[in-house]
What does this fold into?
Amino acid sequence: MSKLIKDILFIIFEELQDDSKSLFSCLLVNKYWCETMVPVLWRNPWCYSGINYNNKNSLFIIISYYLFDDIKEFITNQRIQLPSVIYQSLFFDYLSFCRSINVNTINSILSIGSSLAYNRFSMQQEFYSLFMKKCPELRYLDMRSIKHQIFCFPEAKVHLESLYELRCDTSIDSSYYYGLSRSCHYIQKLIIDNINPKPNYGIVKLIEVQKNLKHFEWKDDFFEDYLTEDPYGIFLLALEKKADSLNYLRIFFRCIYNITERAILQMILPKFHKLKTLIIEDGFLSFTDEQLKNLVYHDLEILNIEYNRLNIISSIIENSGGRIKKILFRPYDTIDFEFDDLSFHESSLNFIRKIYENCPLIEYLSIAFSPSKENFTEFEKLLKNCKNLKSLLLIICNIYEEETEEKILENGEELLKVLISSTPSNLKEIRFYDYFKFSLENLEEFLGKWRGCTLSMLTSDSFYERDDYKKLISKYKNDGVIKDFKYISELELNIVCKS
It folds into this structure.
């Protein structure tokens, strides 16, 4: 019976991995819970939000306890400050549970003992050596800013063979990646921060040797407007060879202006036919009709392509397998790519239709359409057909026609009528830009008739910061109709659009 309870607790704690506050609370329930929880917490103890690792003395104490016997003479000679409690026994063999290394976090913790660069480096080196001896396997490695050749330790090869997730950056010398490439052949999740906009052939080699790469992310994080060398082409061609295993692709290119680079990306995208998640931020992609026909992802669940016309997104939706749950993009940026009002009107109509015809499971949706009767009718069909819808981000916009205040309020009134009559009961969040407004009377009528989940509303329009609107919103918060009503900046709303 006790084993069953422990197994059940372990499953519960596994589900709470992303909720550090709840996890730490579980430690305090009783000794039995604590004994079950510690192995879960220490699998990856460097990843919890809300912890200031720069001043985490408790973790420094634990690491120091392990290091002290091995490098006692060095620590004494260098006058590194260690806490007196390291002479006491630990309640658990914490490091035996650990399966991860986060270089930045570990370096921050060990810096507590000394301000001297040499001491810090030596302590770090000893920790990595100890880790490779102590831990049965290494599953997660965040090696950004690494200075130590950890793959050179005698025990490293065996540990690195089990590596599941790697996060790294392009500023690290290629030799590090060549070293990892000798042992790490079964990485499933690879995240690369591109902070040095020059080709890194070590990363290319690391991609090439992977035998089961499923999750790949690339994010440009530099400020150069123009590049003298192409960092994209070589890694894209290496990534192409992993098309049969990859199911998650997220890329953000800041400077992919070269026609050849774009051609490579457009050429390889159709080959990733097993994708469940496709996110391309700031893509500026332009596909031919033939290329669009080849963008077929039958397993696709999450789609986000920024800075592109609606017809590209619509085409991918049409060729999907009916499993899409999230379509997330910044509608304002997409509108910028429509050439004229008529083009946008037709594209938005087609977009709405493709959603309710092909996405019965949709839960999170960004949508932009012009304020025509036809668009409102199609949007109503979407709401009636997509019963699982939980969150909407909305823009109603005539691109080149200047709307009067009266017309903007009319658009808002029409939208609320559609939402009242047709919204699925699961809808719990509406995010909207300032291309339409709700009058006080219309908003009160809408909230009074709302029968769905407790509603959260986000807007980038300061219009709703007026006292009369705040009073109305407060009333319906007290009545349990509104969970939250937030005014945030357009920049913040753009960030929210992608989550």
In short: The domain at 275-447+487-499 is CATH 3.80.10.10 (Leucine-rich repeat, LRR (right-handed beta-alpha superhelix)).
